[in-house]
Amino acid sequence: MENRFAFIIHPIVLEDIFRKFKALRHLPRGVTEKMVTYLPPIKVSEITGVVSPYGEAVGNFVSVNLTSKQMLSLPEDKVIQKIIQAGKKAQKLGAKIVGLGAMTSVVGDAGISIARNLDIAVTTGNSYTVATALEGTKKAAEKMGIDYRNAQITIIGATGSIGAVCARILAREAKYLTLAARNISRLESLARDILYDTGLAVKVTSDIKKAVQRADILISVSGASEALIEPQDLKTGAVVCDVARPRDVSPRVEELRDDVLVIEGGVVEVPGDVNFNFNFGFPKKTSYACMAETMILALEGRFENFSLGRNLKVERVDEITSLARKHGFKLAGFRSFERPITDEKINNIRKNALRKKTDDKVRVH
C-alpha cells in the first residue's frame, strides 16, 4: 500500500501568486486580490524520496490561493471552504492524510471543521512543532552557555493551545517557570494543573513586558497581531524561541541586539533523498516541523486525525517525538528571522553577550 500524503500551503503575499500567474502582475492590486479568491486549489509539486528504515511515503503540495492577509480578513466560512476544497484536491491526488500549513492551521477551529468535511485524515502538525521548538530551545540555550535547569524560563501566550502544552512539558524539568498571558484566571487554572501534575509551583503574570525582561529563555506563542517583544525588552544573553504567526519578536531586535539569540523553532532533517520540487526557502532535505509531522504519520501508516483543535495533548507531543526518532527525523539546525543561522553567528552572539555582561559589571563597580 502506497503511503500518500499532501500538505496544504498558501502564498504569503501577492508577489508569491505573481510568480505562478505572471499575467496578474499587470492588474491593479485590488483587482488581483479579488480575482485570486476565485482561483481553484492547485497542485504545486510532487514530493518524493521520503524514506525511512520502515518504508517510504510520497506526497504533494497543494495550494489555497489566498494570501496570509486574506486568510485573516476574508469571512471565516469562506476561507474554511477554500481549505476544504484544497483538502478534496489532495484526496483526488490519492492522499490518505493532509497537513495544514501556515495560516490554514490557524483559521477557525484549527482543523476540526476541515476534518469533518474530508474523507481523509487531517493534522495541523502542531504536536511536532511543539516538540522541535522545545528541543531547539534547549540546544540553543546550551550553545549560549545557559544552564537550562537553573534558567528563568518564560512562556508568552501560555494559555493558548501551543503555550499550554509547552508549559506542561517544560514543567517536567524546569525549576523556574513563568507563565504570561492576558487572562490571569486562566493562567492560575493552568498553574494549578501543573502543580498537581508535576509538583512545580510556577509563577503567573499578565505583565508581558516585565516577564520578558526577566527571562533567560523565552518561548513566545501569543496570538497577537503585532510584535510584542522590542529590542529594549530582552535580557543580555537571552534565548528566544518565537513560534508565533505573525511573529512576536520585532524585526528591530535583529537590527539592534547582537547579544540575544532569536530562533523560530527547529529546522527538521527529513530521512531519505527527499525532493520537494518546490522552493519554500529551506536548505535541501529539510522542512518545517508541521510538514514533517504529516510525513511521519504517513510513513507510520497512521491515517488518523492527529493534532487538531486548540487543546493539544502532552501525550501526542511525546508520541510524535518517539515516531520521529523511529523514522529518522531530527533537528538539523536553526532559523532566525526567516533565514538559517550558523554556529559561527551563534558564537558571536554569545561573545557579545559575555562582553556586555562584563561591561555592565564594571560600570556597576
Q: How would you describe what is shown here?
A:
The chain is an alpha/beta fold. It has 13 helices and 15 strands. The chain folds into two domains: 3-127 and 267-334, no CATH class; 134-265 and 341-364, NAD(P)-binding Rossmann-like Domain (Rossmann fold, 3-Layer(aba) Sandwich), CATH 3.40.50. Helix content is 40%, strand content 20%. The strands form three sheets. The protein has a six-stranded parallel beta sheet with strand order 8-7-6-9-10-11, with helices on both faces. α6 (126-143) packs across α7 (161-170) and α11 crosses α12 (314-327). The mean pLDDT is 92.
SSE arrangement:
Blueprint: E1 3-9, H1 14-20, H2 29-36, E2 42-52, E3 55-63, H3 68-73, H4 76-92, E4 97-100, H5 112-116, E5 121-123, H6 126-143, E6 152-156, H7 161-170, E7 176-180, H8 184-198, E8 203-205, H9 208-214, E9 217-220, E10 239-242, H10 252-256, E11 261-263, E12 266-269, E13 286-287, H11 289-300, H12 314-327, E14 330-336, E15 339-341, H13 343-364
Parallel strand pairs: 1-3, 1-4, 4-5, 6-7, 6-9, 7-8, 9-10, 10-11
Antiparallel strand pairs: 2-3, 12-13, 12-14, 14-15
Give me the strand/helix succession: EHHEEHHEHEHEHEHEHEEHEEEHHEEH
Beta-strand portion reads 15-25%
In terms of structural class, how would the helical and strand content be classed? alpha/beta
Give the N-terminus to C-terminus distance in angstroms. 71 Å
The number of distinct helices, counting runs of at least 4 residues, comes to 13
- What is the count of distinct domains? 2
Which overall shape is indicated by the principal axes computed on the Cα atoms?
Answer: globular
